[in-house]
Design goal:
The strands form seven sheets. The chain has an eight-stranded mixed beta sheet, sandwiched between helices. Strands 5-6-7-8-9-10-11 form a seven-stranded antiparallel beta sheet, with no helix packed on it. It has a four-stranded antiparallel beta sheet with strand order 1-2-3-4, with no helix packed on it. The protein has two domains: about 105-330, Methylamine Dehydrogenase, Chain H (7 Propeller); about 425-700, Alpha/Beta hydrolase fold, catalytic domain (Rossmann fold). Helix 3 (about 50-75) crosses helix 12 (about 640-660), helix 4 (about 80-100) packs across helix 5 and helix 7 (about 515-530) crosses helix 8 (about 550-560). It has 13 helices and 35 strands. It is about 25% helix and about 35% strand.
Length: about 700
Amino acid sequence: LYSKIKPKKCHILNCSGSACTRKAVPPGSILPWRFFSCKEEGTKIPSKRKQNTSIITSELLYKNLLKSEQENWNDISARYKAMTKRIKEKLKELHKYAFNSGSPKIRFGENVYFEENGCVFLSKADDDEGNVDILFSTEDLGFSDVFIQRIRISPDQRYMAISLKSENSEEATCVIMKLGNFPVMEKVISNVFSFEWATDDVLYYTSQKNLKCQNVFMTTFTNQKHTKLVYTEQDARFFVDLYCTKDRRFLTINSNSKTTSEVWLVDCRHPFKLPALVQARTKGVIYHVEHRNDELYILTTYGEPGEYKLMKAPVASSGMENWQLVYAVEEKTKLVDLEMFSDHCILFLKNAGYLYLSVISFVSYSVQSIKLPTWACEFELESHPEHTTSTCYFQLTSPVHPPKRFAYSFEENNLIEHAVQEVPIITNCHTTRLLAKSKDETLVPITVFHNMNSKELHRKPLLIHVYGAYGIDLNMSFKEEKLMLIEEGWILAYCHVRGGGELGLRWHRDGCQYNKQKGLHDLKACIMLLHELGFSQPKYTALAAASAGGVLAGALCNTDPELIRAMVLQAPFVDVLNTMMKTHLPLTIEEQEEWGNPLADEKCMKYIKSYCPYQNIKTQCYPSVFITAYEDDQRIPLIGVLQYVQKLREAALDHASRTSKQGNWIPNIILDIQATGSHCDSSWEDSLNEVARHLAFLNKELE
């Protein structure tokens, strides 16, 4: 979703699965899943001959456009070479200092598991001499060009399941290792999305096909090994994943659409019994489940107001009619995650741009609210396999602050900042939080960063970030390039527009389907306020977006191009209408809850057409645009981006020819097509090159 300057060791290990998104965002909806078919539009079904001709014509068009853009990039890339090189060297230098805390670790009793450079190691918690055993190596076992995505250790630590993923594929492979003095590869399962151990030798996993997960399987590693199908989701709008409760009492099968969910329980004491339903799916109600002392703790949107609440019910009678309120999240507050422990529960919250903890004690029946440092913008949660621990660990970060580790002690009832080696770079960064008044008077948050030593801010370059879809927050974790920009005098602004999730579930609802244009109005209001307050000016302003963020960024270029000078887009979604008209694509039906169904509703079709970036390109003066796209991107297909660039360039050149005069400015419309990498994952080196090219382009355009 975002520019990905980060170390490989952070990029490749997800010890706790989708902890950050499992609770507050339905799994499977974290990214705008896209697939492309080159069949042409039309209400009539063409004959086979016409259909084949259409496909051949589309393929030929694709090849011609691809070749043309590759030649164009080869012709102009030299002008950015020197600056790209300088930026890369600076980022590499910052990178050496920014990540010195090592890889995330998984602790089981005295054993500590961690990953580095494609290997999984085992060490002892009290070993100060650095003795480690190697349990797994991608290179030694013949897995090339892959990274480790997720690790799960069986309860008795006899088995380890690892998912391997390449940077050019959406599918992952699960490798099961039998541990011991000489670890042995026991089994390899292809096309796996999520997996959890139900017992010491029973593994549940979901299979992924065409970007969808709808089947759950169980495989055993007992003397009589077998695999069987356990659950199948029939509704194409729903995506299935697995989670194990913190006390390992239940494995949950979670089936979620973007607005509705349903959970089934697998009893880990009886893993061969059929899953039990918690509560049948109810339209508009999302819920996720934890367990403690024979009670289910249910994080849900059920009831009014439609924000998240923590409720509980007995395992034996888990229906909605028995749910009792434990804690309700305040209005305009984003629930980031929940961590359950034996006697406590911690809620990680965002409110008005600030981060909080709410600590619920099941012993004293009290709730304590803890405000975290004001510089912090993002949580990075750590894995806590042992729910009986007395300490919860997490990291805090911001775009310009490397992660700092904190611990909350339940026994001492306080927050502890762990001492770390200081990053030997001077930030002098000031953080400002603003509110812009949108067209309908709604106040929209903006987070601004700039160097405290900067003078004449109206002359400084400004880089604005936007997303505004799927209820997902703008990514505000640390990036070396953001720190570099601050040091070089840039201003960074993050516009938390409607459609995102920064102010809770309602903030998302107010920016999806028939409310999509509200996000566009919010973005315009944010940019205008920044300029009014003296943060840069249009000729020094650039806009950055990725994936579904391309909808609002592209729309703003059509409606208010004079507000910005340049724009950088990464794998942008720029043709909503044509995509949502293709119901034969595997994920279009799922996306209807975000964008609407233009085939079933003419009003919806007209509404999407009114803001869709591709549909609204016109002859006018556009800002310069740099787009990075990927040949093998299944979510944002290259053909759509190629056609968008072609149409945009033609409109800009047409305007220039009609208003030709000496010194007339002609925007640069550039498409950089990457043969490697994908929508979600790129190697460290590919990410570094990509970000450096973006920044070189912006430096040239903003002079």
